[in-house]
Amino acid sequence: MRLHWWMLIVTAALAIAYLGWVFAARRAAIEPVEPQVDPEVVRRQHELDRIYGGKDLKILQFYAATEDLARGDHTVICYGVLNAESVQIEPPLDGVGASVNRCVAAAPRSDTRYTLTATGRNGASLTQSLTIHVHQKPSTPPPRP
Question: Hey, where are the domains in the chain?
Answer without folding.
Answer: 1-30, 55-135
